[in-house]
Design brief:
By secondary structure, the protein is α+β, with helices and mostly antiparallel strands. It has helices at about 10-35, 90-100, 105-129, and strands spanning about 40-45, 60, 65, 70-75, 80-85.
């Protein structure tokens, strides 16, 4: 079987580098705010949205342009800041709910945290394998 060259996706590399840079800045902010309670960070890189587990992660229209909203939560038992993107549907839902009830979590937030915690544990298990 003849091998084919792997195509380099500069756009994906640029997006990953930008996400890593943003998450690193968020980690520094969380570390400054919460001290030793924050030990590390991890970025969820699954293909499906951690909110609905049904749709692919994608851009959201923001002020007429495509945007990705990077989000994070602290998985307290491990002191890990977990970063993630959402699909457009879940992101729009959270944006609308935040306009109605600022600083209030929705049931979707609980689903996101539960799904990301499970993904993080799966990631840890893969490191042990």
């Amino acid at each position: 079987m003849k091998s084919r060259p792997i195509r380099h996706n500069k756009s994906a590399d640029d997006s990953k580098a930008a996400a890593d840079e943003l998450l690193s800045a968020m980690f520094k902010q969380a570390k400054a705010q919460f001290g030793n309670a924050i030990k590390s960070f991890w970025f969820y890189d699954g293909d499906l949205c951690p909110g609905c587990l049904a749709r692919p992660i994608g851009a959201v229209k923001f002020k007429g342009k495509d945007a990705l909203a990077i989000n994070a939560f602290i998985y307290r038992p491990r002191g890990v800041l977990i970063g993630y993107f959402l699909c457009g549907t879940c992101a729009k839902f959270i944006f609308k709910e935040a306009e109605k009830n600022p600083y209030k979590q929705t049931p979707l937030h609980a689903d996101i945290e539960q799904n990301l915690t499970a993904a993080y544990h799966k990631h840890l298990a893969s490191l042990d394998a």
